[in-house]
Amino acid sequence: MKKRECAIVQDLLVLYEDGVLQEESMQMIEEHIRGCEECMRIYENTGKKLPISGGEEEASEKEQEDASAKVMRKLSKNLFYKNAVIFGVVVAVLLIGTVAVNEICNHYLYNGGGIAGMLYTIPADKIEVTELYQLKNGDIYCTLKSEKPIGVQWVSDWILPNDEIAENTENAVQEIGFRQKTLWEWDTSEYNQVSVVFATSRQGVLEESGEKIVQRCSEISYYGKTAEDKKILWQRGQAAEEAPEEIERRAIEEYVRDGQVGKAVQECENLGWDSEEEIAKVYQEDHDISRTYYDSAYTGENVLFQHDYDAVWSIEW
C-alpha cells in the first residue's frame, strides 16, 4: 500500500511543481512528502523545497498515515473516472470503426456480407462444377465442389430487369455463393460439395388482372466477392447432359424435402414413373420429413408466383 501511494505521488510531482493541481491535492502531496523520507529525497533532488508550514508541529505518524490514505483515495477515484472515460471512448471508436468498415466492405462486395463477407467469401476460382445435368422438366441439377470448406451458402431469388418484374420474360438470372464459417460460427457444419436444383421457368398471375405470365431463367452463375468474381454455371442454349435416373431421383427427393410435392409428382409423370411409389420412398428413407406438404407460394411485387401444383399431399405408409 505504501509503495503504491509513493508511486502515485512521485508521478504527480511534475504537476505539483508546475502548480496545476487543485489546492487540496497539492496540500495532500505536501503532507505525504513530509512524512515519507523516500519521496522527500526524490523531491529535494529536483532542487526544490517544500513550503514551510506556518510553525505547526510535525504531524504524528497516525496523522501522516491518514493523510496518505486520503491522498490515495482521492487519486484512485480520479484515476477510476479517467480510466472509465478512456474505456468509453475506446469502445465508441471501435463501434464506429466497425460500422464504417462494414459499410465499406458492403460497398465493394457484390452480395454484401460486410466484414465477414470480405474475409470469408469463397472466390469463384476456388469453385469447380463437377455435375451439370438437365432434368426432364428443364430444371438444372448442378453440383459444385469448393477448394475451401463451405460454412454458409446462399441462393438468390430470381433477378429480373426492373421493367420485366411483372411481365413475361426470358431474361431472369439466378445466383449462388458460398463463404467459410467465421470464428464465432464454431458450431456450424462445414462441407466441400453442394448439389442444387435450379428451376428454369416459373408461372405467375398478375393480382389485379388475373393475367398469367411465364418467366424463364437465362443464366445461372456463382459469385464470389465482387461483380467481376463470377463463374457462369449454365446459360440458355448451353448443352447439358440429360440427367440419368439416379440424378432424377435425387432431384425428386429435393423437391419433396423443399415442400414442392406437386413438382415432384410432375417430374415422375414426365419420366413415366409411379409418383405415389417414388414419393413414398422418400418419406420412408427420411423420417424427418413431415407427411403433409403444401406447395409454397410467394409474392414478388404485384405478381403471385406458385408452383405448378396447389394440391396438399398426405402420404401414409
Largest sheet at a glance?
7 strands, mixed
Number of separate strands: 13
User: Compute the gyration radius: what is it?
Assistant: 37 Å
What do the pLDDT scores average to?
76
Strand content bin: 25-35%
> How many structural units, i.e. domains?
3
Tell me the structural class: alpha+beta
Percent of residues in helices comes to 25-40%
Number of helices: 9
Topology:
Elements: H1 2-11, H2 13-18, H3 23-34, H4 37-44, H5 61-108, H6 114-120, E1 127-134, E2 140-150, E3 152-155, E4 169-179, E5 191-198, E6 201-206, E7 212-223, E8 230-235, E9 241-242, H7 245-257, H8 261-271, H9 275-285, E10 292-294, E11 297-300, E12 303-306, E13 312-314
Overview of the structural elements:
It is a single chain. The protein has 317 residues and is an alpha+beta fold. The protein has three domains: 2-108, no CATH class; 121-242, no CATH class; 244-317, no CATH class. The chain has nine helices and 13 strands. Strands 3, 4, 6, 7, 8, 11 and 12 form a seven-stranded mixed beta sheet that branches. Strands 5-2-1-9 form a four-stranded mixed beta sheet, covered by helices on one side. A two-stranded antiparallel sheet has the order 10-13. Strand 7 (212-223) and strand 8 form a beta hairpin. Helix 8 crosses helix 9. The longest helix is centred in the first third of the chain and has 48 residues, at 61-108.
